[in-house]
Amino acid sequence: MNADDRRLITATLAGNTAAFGDLVRRHQDRLYNAVLRVVDHAEDAADVVQDAFVNAYQALGTFKGDSELYTWLYRIAYNLAISQMRKRRPVVSLDVARGSDPTADPIDHSADTRPGEALERREDEAGLFIALARLSPEHRDVLVMKDLDGQRYEEIAVVLDVPIGTVRSRLHRARLELRQILEPDGK
Amino acid sequence: MLSEADKLLITAGVCGCLSRVEKTALRILLEESPAAKALYTTLCHDRDRLAAVPKQTAPDSIWPNVMARVASGPIIVPPIVPNRQGVAGWLPFAVAASLLVGVTALSYKMFLVPANRNEVADKSSKPIVELQPNRISPPLAANETTAPAPVFVGPPKPDTVVAMAPLPSELAPKPRIIGRQAPFTAAVPDPTVFTTIDARLPVLFPIADAADAEVIRKVKAEFAAGNAIRIDLFAKDTLKAADQFAAAVRAGHTTLAVDGITQMYLKRKLRLAWAVYTESLAAPDALAVLNKLAADDAKPGATPVWVAAHLTATSTADGREAKDLFGLDPAAWKKAKTSVKPAEPLTAGTIDQLTAALGKSTPAAVMTTFLPTNLRIPPNLSPQIKQYFEEKPAKKDGAVPLLVVIRPTS
User: Is 0.85 exceeded by the ipTM?
Assistant: First the structure.
């Protein structure tokens, strides 16, 4: 486990609430991004992340430290996200790539961007997210964890509570399924 | 057309989670198959697109909301529950062991002790025990008027009060046959079962003696049995041995395909063990190969390479090895017999033979490395092994499934 995480957990368990605030700051962006791709809705993702942190705080004494803190947080958030998705009707949202505001432009860090490139990229991302949303949940989850969130096989196996071989085979099917969905557009 | 195994290898490669052998297999696959390379490139592009999606910043409301909720409630640490797993873990075993000991003891008492007691009781009821005057037997009852007259059987000894009269000799009973139903006893096999034993011993001979009449007779007998055969060829230098064996096989017009990883090992001059599988060698062909190897060794100035050959009908363990090495079904392999084809016209198959002769030669044998699984390519990922089993020629008359292992002597 990361040394900074360990130090902050120890401080939190000793009663230092501010230390937990630091933990939230360290992991909230990554956790939010990963959950956003699972629930496919910005407000739901924010709720899930918030609940996940509170649950983690209350159960912090049970965290044994045998995995990364982020993996543990992600597991809590993932279970909450699944519950959240069961509560609401499945919808496909095109605004997830741009956050909660569907009219906002994507962040453009390039000063010399070609005219129209932002639009092309936005369309490309929208197509990608529509394809992701059309995947079966178990395939989408492993792809999000592996490619978007950069988790390793072992971490994904811990979060999903499945053997590593299952993670590998699910990723195999997910990649081929995603390709099949993207193929008709030639993308 | 890519197989499912190829696709699995490609997607695992896209994830970047491959073992060293798998990386090599993937490299070979991408070099040999344009379709595989195209799929790999496309999937890598998809992966990069997903990874390049701009990251969102978490809403600013998350942190204050979490901290507000955290401030209102303390950390709930669940109480430490004493672990009873240790006690509960061994207790069932202890109870089971106690029960077993108890049942064993009871069975012993029921089956053996009562019988002994009855025998003792029967014998003691007979008037064979006589007492001396100063006996220690129970005193006479009040209404007992006369005691049996003691019989003097020898000079009195101090403190000796009991003497045994000689027991009448009896014939020993016939030994009882213990059936399977008797607990804690082994069934006595019927001795008549083992009247004859047909023992088949493996054939072990120096390769230099391959032309010996006795060796030829034994080898032909093994092939005639029709079962799958394994031949272990022991060599001093397995690298030269592989070359010579391949040349000897090809000299008999049998095309030998070599797996890609094995080719790489051979190019790097690694002295490993090798395995060859074929269904195209009958006894004369196998003997011709062995004779060629012996002749190579016997050439003037040649350094002897070959030592001995060990030929045996395959066992279950060999079947497992063949499955690991070549993906063969052990059951089907063991049962494979030389089939007698129905009568065909003389021209039957001529077109096929001409096509085969004009076109690309179909491999009739395939070679791979005889190494642990993690050091060689799995058979389903080897194009050469797959090609062999997809296109292998019909089994030759008199040929049997043959696994040849070329291995070092030490």
Answer: no
Contact B380, B259 (CB under 8 A): no
Compute the half-sphere exposure of residue B306: CA atoms within 13 Å on the CB side of its CA: 29
Angle in degrees, CA B51, B53, B54, rounded to 5: 125
Mean pLDDT score across all residues of chain A: 78
Q: Which of residues 16-35 of A touch B (CB under 8 A)?
A: 17, 20-21, 24-25, 28-33
Residues of chain B contacting residue A175, judged by C-beta atoms under 8 Å apart: 11, 14, 43, 46-47
The DSSP bridge partners found for residue B198 are none
What phi and psi, each to the nearest 5 degrees, are found at residue B39?
Answer: -65, -45
Write out the E strands in B289-397.
Answer: 306-313, 365-369
**Closest by Cα among B248, B256, B250 to B364:** B256
pLDDT of amino acid B158: 54
Name the pLDDT band for B196 (thresholds 50, 70, 90).
low
Are the beta carbons of B17 and A100 separated by less than 8 Å? no
Rounded to a whole number, what is the distance in Å from the CA of A48 to chain B's nearest CA? 10
DSSP A147: I
pLDDT, one tens digit per residue, over B41-79 is 989 988 888 888 778 788 888 888 888 888 776 656 555
- Window B:63-92, CB contacts with A under 8 Å: 63, 65-67, 69-71, 73, 75-78
Whole-angstrom CA distances from B246 to A174, B216, B266, B309, B379 are 44, 22, 12, 16, 20
Find the length of chain A: 187
CB contact under 8 A, B66 and A60: no
C-beta separation of B256 from B250 below 8 A: yes
- Confirm or reject contact between B38 and chain A (CB < 8 A): no
Residue predicted with more confidence, B267 or B112: B267
Q: How far apart are CA B259 and CA B195, in angstroms?
A: 49
A10 touches chain B (CB under 8 A): no
Alpha helices in B280-349, H assignment, sequence order: 283-298, 316-326, 330-335
Q: Are strands B203-206 and B274-278 parallel, antiparallel or unpaired?
A: unpaired
**Which of B204, B255, B268 shows the shortest CA–CA distance to B388?**
B255
Pick the closest to residue B232 from B259, B253, B269, B207 (CA basis): B207
Q: How far apart are CA A71 and CA A63, in angstroms?
A: 11
Cα dihedral sign for B261, B267, B272, B275?
A: positive
**CB neighbours (10 Å) of residue B393?**
16
- Could you give the strand order of the β-sheet that contains B402-408, starting from the edge strand earlier in sequence? B203-206, B306-313, B229-235, B402-408, B274-278, B365-369, B256-258
Contact call for residues A58 and A17 (beta carbons, < 8 A): no
Q: Name chain A contacts of B14, Cβ cutoff 8 Å.
A: 175
pTM for this entry: 0.42
The pLDDT tens digits of the residues spanning B271-284 come to: 888 999 998 888 99
Are the Cβ atoms of B71 and A17 closer than 8 angstroms?
yes
Residue A178 with chain B: CB contacts under 8 Å: 46
Kindly indicate the confidence band of residue B102, based on its pLDDT and cuts at 50, 70 and 90.
very high
For A6, A121, B37, the CA distances from B48, given in Å and listed in that order, are: 32, 14, 16
Distance set, CA B293 to CA A90, B32, B205 (Å):
72, 34, 13
